[in-house]
Amino acid sequence: MTKFDEATQAIRVDETTYDVCLDPGYAIGGPLNGGYLMAVLLRAVVDSSPFEHPVSTTAQFHRSPAAGPARVRVEQLKAGRTVAFARASLVQEGVPQIEALVTTATLQDDEPTYADETGYVMPRPEDCVRLPDPKPESGMTLNAQLDMRFDPPTIGWLSGRPTGRPESRAYFRMAEPQDPDPYVLALAVDALPPVVFSAGARGWAPTVDLTWHLRALPAPGWLTLIGSGRLVSGGWFDEEVEVRDSRGRLVAQSRQLARVGRG
Q1: Residues near 172 by Cβ (< 8 Å), separated by ≥ 6?
Q2: Locate the Acyl-CoA thioesterase-like N-terminal HotDog domain: which residues (predicted)?
Q3: Domain spans of the chain, in order of start
Q4: pLDDT tens for each residue of 66-76
C-alpha cells in the first residue's frame, strides 16, 4: 500500500457507512485538495458497488473539511447489468462537507474506435520546470506528494508575467512511485494551479462544483494535464482539464466552476 492508498482508504462500517481519516499531507494552504477528497469518497463508493471503476463523478463542495476523522455515507440509487448509480456524502462531525453523484462501471482496456488528438504538444519533461518548494508555514503540503513539471509559459504568474489567458499545463505523477489508477486520476484532475492565475488573478480559488469522467485505464508513467478556461467574469471562472497517459490516450476529462482567488 502506497502513502496515497493509505491516505484515501475507506473502512467499511456497514452497508452505507465508511470510516475515513483525512490526511493533512494533501492541503493547499490550509484547505484539503478537492481531488484528494474525491478520491477518498470514491474509494467508499466503488467498494459498495458491483462494478470496479468510477466512470463519472459530479461533486459539490459545500464546505472545506478539516484533516482528521470523517465518514462517507453511500446511498445506492440503481444498479443494472453494466452500470450503477450512487449518491455519496463526505460527513464530518455530523455535517455534510461534499455531496456527490457517482456512476460506476467496469472498463475494459479496449482500443478506441475514435480518438481526438490533443491540440497542444507539450515540451519534453526535462524541458519543463518544477514550482519552487513552498515555505513550511504556507501549509502547501500537497506539493510534497506530487512530482509535477510545468510548461514554462503557464507559470509566468510566479514572476509577475502571466500570459493573460486562463491556462495551466504540466506533467504529473505521484512523488512516491505508483502507477496511475482511477483514484490518482481523481487527484490529477484537480492538481493544477487554478488556470485563472495565468489570467492575472491570485489567491485561493475554491471549487464549487466539479464533474470528471474516467475515459480509460491509464498506462504506467507520466500523465499529461492540459488545463484551460473559457470565461472569467463576476468573480467566477471555469476550468477544463484533459488528462492523457504516457501512451497519449485520453484517460480523464473534467470541468469545474470555481470562485476567483481571494486573499
Answers
A1: 146, 147, 148, 188, 191, 222, 223, 224, 225, 243
A2: 25-106
A3: 3-107+122-259
A4: 999 999 999 99
Which among 36, 42, 32 has a CA at the least distance from the CA of 206?
Answer: 32
Distance, in Å, from the CA atom of 261 to the CA atom of 236, rounded to the nearest integer, reads 9
Instruction: For domain 3-107+122-259, give the CATH number.
Output: 2.40.160.210
45-62 pLDDT, tens digit each: 999 999 999 999 999 999
Q: Determine the Cα–Cα distance for residues 256 and 25; give it in Å rounded to an integer.
A: 23
Nearest to 48 by CA among 18, 21, 80, 19: 18
- What is the SS3 assignment for the chain? CCHHHHHHCCEECCCCEEEEEECHHHECCCCECHHHHHHHHHHHHHHHCCCCEEEEEEEEECCCCCCEEEEEEEEEEEECCCCEEEEEEEEECCEEEEEEEEEEECCCCCCCCCCCCCCCCCCCHHHCECCCCCCHHHCCHHHHHEEEEECHHHHHHHHCCCCCCCEEEEEEEECCCCCCCHHHHHHHCCCCCCHHHHHCCCCECCEEEEEEEECCCCCCCCEEEEEECCCEECCEEEEEEEEECCCCCEEEEEEEEEECCEC
CB 71 within 8 A of CB 126: no
**Overall pTM surpassing 0.90 (yes/no):** yes
Gap between the Cα atoms of 17 and 74, Å rounded: 6
* C-alpha span between 218 and 224 (Å, rounded): 11
